[in-house]
Specification:
The complex is a heterodimer.
Chain A lengths: L9 H8 L1 H31 L15 H7 L2 H32 L6 H8 L1 H4 L2 H11 L6 H8 L13 H28 L4 H9 L4 H29 L3 H6 L11 H9 L5 H32 L5
Helix pairs in contact in A: 1-2, 2-14, 4-9, 4-11, 9-11, 10-11, 11-14, 13-14
Chain B lengths: L2 H11 L12 H30 L3 H4 L16 H9 L2 H33 L4 H12 L3 H15 L5 H7 L1 H17 L3 H9 L4 H12 L1 H17 L2 H6 L8 H8 L8 H21 L1 H13 L1
Classes of the chains: A mainly alpha, B mainly alpha.
C-alpha cells in the first residue's frame, strides 16, 4: 500500500495530491470505457443514420434519405404503432398488477421473505430462456393453455397464439407483463415500506375507509417512486427486443415488429446498417421524453420529503 | 441526495407493521390476500414448472396428451440433458457465458469503485455533473447501441470473439454499478475519512482500508446484479458472435437448438433450465443483496 511515490515529476504529484487530479485519475477507467463504447457509438449511430453503410463497408453521407425512405415505409409506421401499443398496454398492466402484488406483500404474511424471493424469479432468469418456455406454452398444437381450456369445454380447437396478429400481440404483451411484474412489485414494495403505518392508523381513527386511505395516503406518498419505477419499466418495454425475437421475430405479417426488432432485422440479417441505425435513432425522442418524465418525478420527490439539497 | 439514508432509517423504525390488520376477519383476508397471492405465485412460477417438467419428459410422453397427463411425468429421463451435454456445444456455451460474465463484472466493478469514490468523496470540479451523466448513461438502452457497436467491433477486429462481449458489456454495467456504489459510499460517514486523513493516510489507503471494507455489502450487491445482467444479455451476443464455439447460452440455445419445423422441446427446455440454474442458484444465496441493488438503483 505504498501508494505515495517519490514526487519525481510534478504531473504525477498533481495527479495524486490535488482534488481534481485524483478525481481525474480515479474517473479514468470508467470514463475511457464509457467514452469508447457508449458515447462514441451513440454519436456514430446518429452518423450511420445519415449514411448508406452496409456490413463491412463504410457508407457515404446521403443526408436524410434513410429517414425519407422510412417515412414512406408502412412497415416502419406499423412498428411504431406496435411499439406504442406494446409499451402502453404492457406498462399499464405491469403497474396495476405490480402495485396490487406490492400491496398484498406489504401485509403481515408468514414466509414473506420467501414469497418475495420466488416472486422475483421471472426477473432473474434470462429473458431469452423464459421466453423459450413461453414459446412452448404458446405452441399452436400442444399449448398447455389450449389443452386446459379444451378440457374445460371453453374452446373446441387449440388457440393459434402466435399465428394470428391479434393473438400474437396479446401473447407477447402477456409474456412481457409476466416478466415485468416482479420488478414493479418489489420496487413499489420497497417504497410502501417507507410509508409510516401511523399515518394509516390516524386516518382510520378519523373514519377513513380503506379506499380513502389508499387514495389519500398511500398513493400520494408513493407517487415519486412510482414515477421512477414506471420510467424504468417504460424504458425497458419500449426498447424490448429479446421477447419478440424469440416468440415471433416480428411476425405474423409484421404485427408484432417493434422498432428495436425492425432495426435489428434491417441492419444485421438485412445488411442495411444505415437504415437500421436510422430506426434506432428514431427511438431516441421517445426515450428522452421518458427520461424527462423521470427527472420531474425525482424533482417532485425532494419537496415531498421536505429535503433541501 | 441524502434522502436514501433517511428512508432506510425510517423503514427500520417502522416496526409496527401489524397495525390495523387485527380488524380484518379471516375469511376477508383469504379473499383479499391469500387467494390473489396464490394466483400471482401460480402464474409467475408456472412457466418454470412447465420448463422443468418438459426437460425431464421422455419424447413419447411429450405431446401425447391423450394417454399421459401433461402436468406430470412418468419415467423421468435425463436423455435431453445428456444430449445437450455430449452431442451439442452446450458446455462450451456455458463456459463462454461464465467467462464473459465474470470478466465483464470484474472490469465494471473495478472501474466503478474508483469512479463512484471520485464522484462521491474526492468531489473534483464537476463531480455532480459527472454523476448525472452516469445516471443518463444508465438509461441508454443496448437496442440503440448495438448497430454502431457492431460497426466498431468489426473495425477493431474483435468481431466474433468473447473479447467483444467482455469489452462491450461494461457499457451497461459501469453506469449501473457506479450509480449503486455512489449510494453506498454516501452512507459512510465523512468523519471516518477525516480522521484517517488526519492520521496521515493517503487517498489510496483511505479507499482500500476504510471505504472498501465498509462498502462490502454494496460491492456484493453490485457484483451479483452485474453478473446476472451480463448472463442475461442477448442482443450484443447475438449481433457480435457468429461461430458456434463463441456463443453464449441464450444465443446458442436459440440459434443452434431450434432447427427446422420439428422443435425438440425436451432439449430446448433442458437447455433453458440448465442455463437459468447458475443465476438462480447465485440469486438464492444473495436474495437480499439482489433486492437491495434493484430497489437501490430505483430509489436514489
Amino acid at each position: 500500500m505504498q501508494a505515495r511515490p517519490a514526487r519525481s515529476s510534478s504531473i504525477l504529484g498533481w495527479l495524486l495530491e490535488s482534488r481534481n487530479g485524483l478525481g481525474l485519475l480515479f474517473m479514468l477507467p470508467a470514463a475511457v470505457f464509457l467514452l469508447c463504447f457508449l458515447t462514441y457509438p451513440l454519436g456514430l449511430g446518429v452518423w450511420l443514420g445519415f449514411t448508406d453503410a452496409r456490413i463491412g463497408r463504410e457508407g457515404i453521407f446521403i443526408g436524410l434519405e434513410n429517414y425519407i425512405w422510412l417515412f414512406d415505409d408502412p412497415v416502419f409506421w406499423l412498428s411504431v404503432f406496435n411499439t406504442m401499443l406494446y409499451t402502453v398496454v404492457a406498462s399499464v398492466l405491469k403497474f396495476a398488477l405490480g402495485l396490487w402484488l406490492a400491496l398484498i406483500l406489504n401485509q403481515h404474511l408468514p414466509f414473506k421473505t420467501f414469497f418475495r424471493a420466488i416472486i422475483l424469479l421471472p426477473w432473474v432468469v434470462p429473458t431469452v430462456l423464459s421466453a423459450l418456455a413461453f414459446w412452448w406454452i404458446y405452441d399452436s398444437q400442444f399449448s398447455i393453455i389450449s389443452y386446459v381450456l379444451m378440457n374445460l369445454g371453453v374452446i373446441n380447437e387449440p388457440i393459434n397464439f402466435l399465428g394470428d396478429p391479434t393473438n400474437a400481440r396479446a401473447s407477447v404483451i402477456a409474456a412481457n407483463v409476466w416478466r415485468g411484474i416482479p420488478f414493479v412489485a418489489i420496487s413499489l414494495l420497497a417504497g410502501l415500506q417507507t410509508i409510516p403505518q401511523s399515518l394509516n392508523e390516524a386516518a382510520a381513527l378519523d373514519g377513513a375507509t380503506s379506499w380513502q386511505r389508499f387514495t389519500k395516503i398511500t398513493l400520494p406518498l408513493l407517487t415519486p417512486i412510482i414515477a421512477v419505477v414506471m420510467t424504468f419499466s417504460v424504458l425497458f418495454t419500449f426498447t424490448d427486443f429479446q421477447l419478440i425475437y424469440v416468440l415471433t421475430r416480428g411476425g405474423p405479417v409484421n404485427a408484432t415488429h417493434l422498432m428495436a426488432t425492425l432495426s435489428f432485422q434491417r441492419a444485421i440479417p438485412g445488411g442495411q446498417l444505415g437504415e437500421g441505425a436510422a430506426i434506432a435513432v428514431a427511438m431516441i425522442p421517445f426515450l428522452l421524453a421518458a427520461i424527462l418524465f423521470s427527472f420531474f418525478g425525482l424533482q417532485r420527490r425532494k419537496w415531498q420529503q421536505g429535503g433541501g439539497d | 441526495m441524502s434522502e436514501s439514508t433517511q428512508t432506510t432509517q425510517r423503514a427500520a423504525i417502522n416496526d409496527d407493521m401489524e397495525g390495523m390488520e387485527q380488524f380484518n376477519t379471516l375469511p376477508r383476508r383469504i379473499m383479499t390476500v391469500y387467494l390473489p397471492l396464490a394466483v400471482f405465485i401460480f402464474v409467475l412460477l408456472f412457466p418454470f414448472y412447465w420448463m422443468a417438467i418438459t426437460a425431464i419428459k421422455p419424447d413419447y410422453q411429450l405431446t401425447n396428451y391423450e394417454n399421459y397427463s401433461p402436468f406430470w411425468v412418468i419415467e423421468p429421463t435425463l436423455e435431453h440433458v445428456k444430449f445437450l451435454l455430449f452431442e451439442t456445444s452446450y458446455p462450451g456455451w456455458l463456459w463462454n457465458t461464465m467467462l464473459v460474465a465474470f470478466a465483464s463484472t470484474f472490469i465494471s466493478l473495478a472501474a466503478s469503485v474508483f469512479a463512484a469514490y471520485a464522484i462521491e468523496r474526492v468531489r473534483f470540479t464537476g463531480a455532480r455533473v459527472t454523476g448525472l451523466m452516469i445516471f443518463l448513461a444508465y438509461l441508454v438502452p443496448p437496442s440503440i447501441l448495438f448497430i454502431p457497436l457492431a460497426f466498431i467491433v468489426f473495425k477493431v477486429g474483435i468481431f466474433d470473439s468473447r473479447l467483444a462481449l467482455i469489452l462491450t458489456y461494461p457499457t451497461f454495467l459501469i453506469p449501473f454499478c457506479t450509480w449503486l456504489l455512489m449510494g453506498y459510499f454516501r452512507s459512510i460517514p465523512f468523519e471516518l475519512e477525516e480522521s484517517a486523513l488526519v492520521d496521515g493516510a493517503t487517498r489510496w489507503q483511505i479507499l482500500t482500508k476504510v471505504i472498501l471494507p465498509l462498502a462490502v455489502p454494496g460491492l456484493i450487491s453490485a457484483g451479483i446484479f452485474a453478473f446476472t445482467l451480463s448472463w442475461n444479455e442477448f442482443i450484443y451476443a447475438l449481433t457480435f458472435i457468429s461461430s458456434s464455439e463463441n456463443k453464449t447460452v441464450p444465443v446458442g440455445v436459440l440459434t443452434e437448438l431450434v432447427r427446422g419445423d420439428i422443435y425438440e422441446w425436451g432439449a430446448l427446455m433442458s437447455g433453458a433450465l440448465l442455463g437459468s440454474l447458475p443465476v438462480v442458484i447465485l440469486y438464492s444465496f444473495f436474495v437480499d443483496y439482489y433486492v437491495s441493488s434493484m430497489t437501490g438503483a430505483v430509489k436514489e
